[in-house]
Amino acid sequence: MKADPLSPEMTKLVTPRAIKNYATVLGWRQVPGINGTISVYHRPDSELHQLIVALDESFDDYGETVAEAIRKLAAFENRPPLEVLNHMLLPPSDVFRFQETGPDTEASTLPFQQAVDFLEGTRSMLLSTAHSILHPQPSHPRLSRTEAQQFVRKCRLGQTERGSFTFTLACPLDFVPGTQSRQEPYGRQVTHGLISSLAGIARETEANRVDDLADLTKYPHLSANFFEAILLLRPSGDRSILRVSVDWSKAVLPPEGEQQRKVVQLRQECFEAAEYLAPKLRAAPVPVLETFVGFVEVLRGQAGPDGTMAGEVVFSITLDGGELIRARADLSAPDYQIAGDAHLKHEPVYFRAYLIRAPRNNRVERMTSFRRLESPAGSI
Question: To 10 degrees, the CA torsion angle through 201, 203, 205, 207?
Answer without folding.
Answer: -160
